[in-house]
Design brief:
- The protein is α+β, with helices and mostly antiparallel strands.
- The protein has four domains: about 210 residues; about 140 residues, Galactose-binding domain-like (Jelly Rolls, Sandwich); about 240 residues, PPM-type phosphatase domain (Phosphatase 2c, domain 1, 4-Layer Sandwich); about 120 residues, Tetratricopeptide repeat domain (Serine Threonine Protein Phosphatase 5, Tetratricopeptide repeat), CATH 1.25.40.
- Helix content is about 55%, strand content about 20%.
- It contains 21 helices and 27 strands.
- The strands form six sheets. Strands 3-2-4-9-6-7 form a six-stranded antiparallel β-sheet, with no helix packed on it. A six-stranded antiparallel β-sheet has the order 12-13-27-23-20-21, with helices on one face. Strands 1, 5, 8, 10 and 11 form a five-stranded antiparallel β-sheet that branches.
- Helix 14 runs antiparallel to helix 15.
- The longest helix has about 70 residues.
- InterPro entries: 7TMR_DISM_rcpt_extracell_dom1, PPM-type-like_dom_sf, PPM-type_phosphatase-like_dom, TPR-like_helical_dom_sf.
C-alpha cells in the first residue's frame, strides 16, 4: 500500500515539477520582483519592469469600462473589440534599447506607443497572416519620460479577447530576446528527447514482436514531438507556412489519442478495447477533413465539434484500462498523473472563459504525464532486467546442478561403457582365437577381409565386434588332407551378433575335432556341420540365426565343395569375367521347422580362377541421395569383382562409392595359382582312375566283393567330385551289407544331386535296412511316382524291387 501511494505521489510531483520548471523559465523574474524588490527602484536596462497592473480598458468610443490586470481574457465584457491602455513614467531616459514583451493576445492586436503604431519583431510586410498563438515582442521602443501604451484587441475566436497569456514587461532588448530564445531552446530539447525515445521504442518493438505496447507508445511520442514543435513558436522562427502548420498540428492532435489508447490498453491489460479501432477510424476521418480546411476558423470548429467530443470516449476507455491496472503498483501512479492532467485541463478551460486568471498548465502536465509513462516503460525494462538476472541466477543454479548430475551420469555411463567395452574386448579376443591363420595350401591362395560395424576402444586399444567371422582349418577326410572354411553372418550387431558368430565358430571347431574318428565324405562332412549349427541355433526359438557358407577345399583335385545357407550368391571369376554360381541356397541356420535336403555344390577351379564368398554387408548399402534408403547393390558388386580382379581391399573401397556400409562385412577369396606340372599330373590321374575302375570291376566279378568295395572307396576318395564313383561305391557297400558306409556314399550323391532317382531308391533301401524313416526322402520318392508306403513294408514287393 505504501509503495502504491509513493508512486502516486511521485507521478503528481513529476507533473508539478514539469509545470514549475517551465513556468519558472517564464516567470522567474516576475516572481523575484514581487518578492524582493519594487518596480520603482529598477533600472530597465538591468532588470525587467513588469506592467501587469492598472490597465485601463475602454470601448472604442472612448467610454471607460474599468481597470484590470493583465493577462486577462476580456470576452466576458460583451464587446468584440476593446482598447487597453497604460501610462509609463521614466524619471531618467534609459541608455539602452528597450523592448516590450506583450505575450499571447487575441488575433488582430495592434499596439500604439505614444500614438505610433509599432510592428512586432520579425513582422515585415505582413509576412504572418495569423499570429494569435505567438508571443508578441516589440523592439526599438521610442522612449520618453512620459509614455502611453495603447493596445487595440479584437475577437477572432469565440470567447477569446485580450492579452491571454504572459505578463507584459519592458526590459533590455538583449535580455528579452535571450529569455525568449532560452525558453524555446529548452522546450525544443525536451520534446526532442521524446522523439529520440519514440524512435528507439519503435525500432525496439520491430526487433521484439512481443513489445507491441512499446511500438504504440513510440508512435505516440513521435506524434507528440511533431505536435509540440508545430504548436510552438518555432514555426515563426523557421518561417513555415502558418496554415500548413496548423493543419499538421490538428492532425497530429487527432492521432495522439488513438495511439496513446492503443499503448495504454496493451500496457495495462495486454489486449485492445473493442472501441479502439472505431475511434481510430473516426480520428482518421477528422484528419481527412482537417487537410481540406481553408482557414484556422474551420480547423477550430472541426476540432471543437468533431474531435473534442470523442475525447470523452477515450477517457472512458482509459479509465477502464486504468481500473485493470490499479492492482499493480504503478496503477496508482497512472491514476495520479491522469487526475492531475484532467485538473490542469479544467483549469485552462476555466481560465480561457475568464473565470480565473492562471497561466496555462495543461501542455506542461501532458509533458509530466509522458515523462511518468516513459519512467514506467524504463522501469519495466529494469524489472525485465532484474527478472532476467534472477532467471539467469536460477538458470545458473540449475545449470550447475544439471552439470553435476550430467557429470555423475557421464561418469556412470563412462564406467558402464568401460565395462561394456571390456565385454566387447573379451568377446573380440575370443573371436580372434577362431579367426583364420592359414593363407595358402597347395596351389591355392586364401584371402579374407572382416570389417565389423561396431567399433570400440578399450585401454586405448581400438577394436571391433560383430556377427561376421571367417574360420579356416585343416581337416582329414578318408585319410586325405582338406581345408575346411566357415564364413558366417550371425543375426544382430555387437554382442548378439558376436555371440552367434562365436557359437558358430565353436561348433565348427568342435565338429573338426569330433569328425576325426568318423567316416565322412566332403559333402556329408559339410552337411553334418550345417545340421549341428542349425540345431544349436534352433534352441534359441528363432531369436538367433545365421547365414553362411560352409566349404571344403580339395587342393589335390583343385575343387571346392560348399553349402550356401542363406548367404549372398557365391561368385566365380574366370578369364576376368565374374558370374554367380549357385541357383538357389539352403535355409538359414536356426530357422524353425527346417525340412529340406541341403544342397552341396562342387566347383573345379582352373588356373587363375577365383571364387568369392561374402556376407550381405558387401552389397546392402545406404544411399547418399535424398531419403537415404537402403538398397542391395548385387549387380554392381558382381561388376566390381571383375573391375578389381577380386582384390578385397580395393573391392571394399569401390563399393563404398555406391553408399555407406550399414552392416558387418566379411569376404573370402580362394585363388588358384598357375602350376605347369599340374596339367600333366591331372591327365595321368584321370587315366589311372579309369584303369583302376576296370580293375575293381574285374575283382568284383571274380567274387572278391569286399576287396572291390575298398578299391571303389579309395577311387572315390581320390576323386571326390566324381558322382558316378560315389554311386558305384554306395551300391557295392549295399550289396556287401555294409549299410553305414553305403549310406555315407549314397548321401554324398544325394546332397550333390537330390533328383537322381536311381540313388534315391538305393538310399531308401539303405534307410529301410537301418530302420531310418526320413520324411524328406519319402517326399522325394513320391515325386518320382513310387508307392512309398508299400515299398517300406517287409513284403515280396520290396524284395522284388531290391
Amino acid at each position: 500500500m505504501k509503495s502504491k501511494l509513493g508512486i502516486c505521489i511521485f507521478s503528481v510531483l513529476l507533473s508539478i515539477g514539469t509545470n514549475t520548471f517551465f513556468h519558472s523559465l517564464e516567470y522567474q523574474e516576475w516572481i523575484y520582483s514581487n518578492i524582493f524588490s519594487s518596480n520603482n527602484q529598477k533600472d530597465p536596462c538591468k532588470s525587467f519592469i513588469f506592467l501587469e497592473q492598472n490597465w485601463e480598458v475602454s470601448e472604442l468610443s472612448g467610454t471607460k469600462i474599468g481597470n484590470f490586470s493583465l493577462p486577462k481574457n476580456l470576452s466576458n465584457l460583451g464587446h468584440s473589440s476593446l482598447l487597453i491602455s497604460k501610462s509609463i513614467h521614466f524619471s531618467e531616459l534609459p541608455d539602452c534599447e528597450l523592448s516590450l514583451l506583450l505575450g499571447k493576445t487575441s488575433e488582430g492586436t495592434k499596439l500604439f506607443w505614444n500614438g505610433v503604431l509599432l510592428s512586432e519583431r520579425s513582422e515585415k510586410e505582413n509576412k504572418f497572416e495569423f499570429s494569435y498563438d505567438k508571443k508578441k515582442v516589440y523592439n526599438s521602443l521610442p522612449i520618453k519620460n512620459e509614455n502611453r501604451i495603447e493596445i487595440l484587441v479584437s475577437e477572432y475566436f469565440e470567447n477569446e479577447l485580450g492579452v491571454l497569456e504572459g505578463i507584459p514587461s519592458i526590459g533590455n532588448s538583449k535580455y528579452i530576446l535571450q529569455k525568449h530564445y532560452k525558453f524555446q531552446i529548452y522546450y525544443l530539447i525536451l520534446i526532442s528527447t521524446f522523439l529520440l525515445l519514440g524512435m528507439y521504442l519503435v525500432f525496439l518493438s520491430l526487433q521484439e514482436r512481443q513489445l507491441e505496447s512499446h511500438f504504440y507508445f513510440g508512435i505516440f511520442l513521435s506524434l507528440f514531438f511533431l505536435f509540440s514543435l508545430i504548436s510552438s513558436e518555432w514555426k515563426f522562427e523557421l518561417d513555415w507556412d502558418f496554415l500548413f502548420c496548423k493543419k499538421v498540428e490538428y492532425i497530429s492532435l487527432s492521432l495522439l489519442f488513438p495511439f496513446f489508447t492503443f499503448f495504454f490498453s496493451k500496457f495495462c491489460r495486454d489486449r485492445h478495447h473493442p472501441f479502439e479501432f472505431p475511434l481510430f477510424l473516426w480520428a482518421g476521418f477528422v484528419s481527412f477533413l482537417f487537410i481540406y480546411s481553408s482557414n484556422p476558423l474551420e480547423l477550430d470548429k472541426l476540432n471543437r465539434t468533431l474531435l473534442q467530443p470523442s475525447w470523452i470516449v477515450y477517457l472512458w476507455v482509459l479509465f477502464k484500462c486504468l481500473k485493470a491496472r490499479l492492482p499493480e503498483q504503478d496503477g496508482a501512479g497512472f491514476l495520479g498523473s491522469i487526475c492531475f492532467l484532467i485538473i490542469s485541463i479544467l483549469l485552462d478551460i476555466i481560465s480561457a472563459r475568464a473565470w480565473i486568471v492562471l497561466p496555462r498548465s495543461s501542455e506542461y502536465s501532458v509533458l509530466g504525464f509522458i515523462l511518468f509513462c516513459s519512467f514506467r516503460i524504463s522501469g519495466r525494462f529494469v524489472e525485465m532486467k532484474n527478472r532476467l538476472k534472477s532467471w539467469n541466477e536460477k538458470l545458473q543454479e540449475e545449470v550447475t546442478l544439471k552439470t553435476k548430475e550430467l557429470t555423475e551420469s557421464f561418469t556412470n555411463v563412462r564406467s558402464l561403457k568401460e565395462k561394456q567395452d571390456g565385454d566387447y574386448f573379451l568377446m573380440s579376443v575370443l573371436q580372434s582365437c577362431f579367426q583364420n591363420k592359414i593363407r595358402s595350401v597347395g596351389d591355392f591362395k586364401i584371402e579374407t577381409l572382416v570389417s565389423q560395424f561396431k567399433k570400440f576402444e578399450f585401454n586405448s586399444k581400438p577394436g571391433e565386434i560383430g556377427g561376421d567371422i571367417v574360420c579356416i582349418e585343416e581337416i582329414r577326410i578318408e585319410g586325405r588332407k582338406f581345408l575346411a572354411i566357415l564364413n558366417v553372418d550371425a543375426m544382430g550387431k555387437s554382442l548378439q551378433g558376436a555371440t552367434g558368430a562365436l557359437l558358430s565358430s565353436s561348433m565348427f571347431k568342435s565338429h573338426i575335432d569330433s569328425s576325426a574318428s568318423g567316416f565322412y565324405t566332403p559333402e556329408t562332412w559339410i552337411v553334418s556341420l550345417y545340421r549341428k549349427i542349425h540345431g544349436l541355433f534352433q534352441g534359441f526359438d528363432g531369436n538367433l540365426y545365421a547365414t553362411g557358407v560352409l566349404a571344403v577345399l580339395d587342393p589335390e583335385n583343385s575343387c571346392i565343395f560348399f553349402l550356401n545357407a542363406g548367404h549372398p550368391i557365391s561368385i566365380l571369376l574366370r578369364n576376368n569375367i565374374s558370374g554367380f554360381i549357385e541357383t538357389d541356397t539352403s535355409y538359414k541356420m536356426g530357422i524353425p521347422s527346417l525340412k529340406e535336403i541341403p544342397k552341396v555344390y562342387c566347383i573345379s577351379l582352373k588356373e587363375n580362377d577365383s571364387i568369392l564368398f561374402g556376407s550381405d554387408g558387401r552389397e546392402d548399402l545406404r544411399s547418399r541421395t535424398v531419403g537415404r534408403e537402403i538398397h542391395s547393390f548385387s549387380e554392381p558388386f558382381l561388376l566390381e569383382v571383375s573391375n578389381t580382379n577380386a582384390d578385397l581391399v580395393l573391392l571394399k573401397n569401390r563399393m563404398s562409392e555406391y553408399g555407406d556400409y550399414i552392416d558387418d562385412l566379411s569376404l573370402v577369396r580362394i585363388f588358384r595359382r598357375v602350376n605347369p606340372q599340374k596339367k600333366s599330373m591331372d591327365l595321368w590321374k584321370e587315366t589311372s582312375k579309369r584303369k583302376n575302375l576296370q580293375k575293381g570291376i574285374h575283382i568284383w566279378k571274380n567274387g572278391d566283393k569286399k576287396i572291390a568295395c575298398s578299391f571303389f572307396s579309395k577311387l572315390s576318395a581320390d576323386d571326390p567330385k566324381d558322382k558316378d564313383l560315389a554311386y558305384i561305391t554306395a551300391w557295392a557297400y549295399w550289396k556287401t551289407g555294409e549299410w553305414e558306409k553305403a549310406k555315407t556314399y549314397s548321401e554324398k550323391l544325394l546332397y550333390r544331386d537330390p533328383k537322381n532317382h536311381q540313388n534315391l531308391v538305393l538310399l531308401a533301401k539303405i534307410y529301410f535296412q537301418l530302420g531310418i524313416k526320413d520324411v524328406i526322402l519319402i517326399g522325394l520318392l513320391e515325386d518320382t511316382g513310387f508307392d512309398v508306403q508299400r515299398m517300406f513294408r517287409p513284403t515280396d514287393y520290396f524284395k522284388k524291387v531290391s
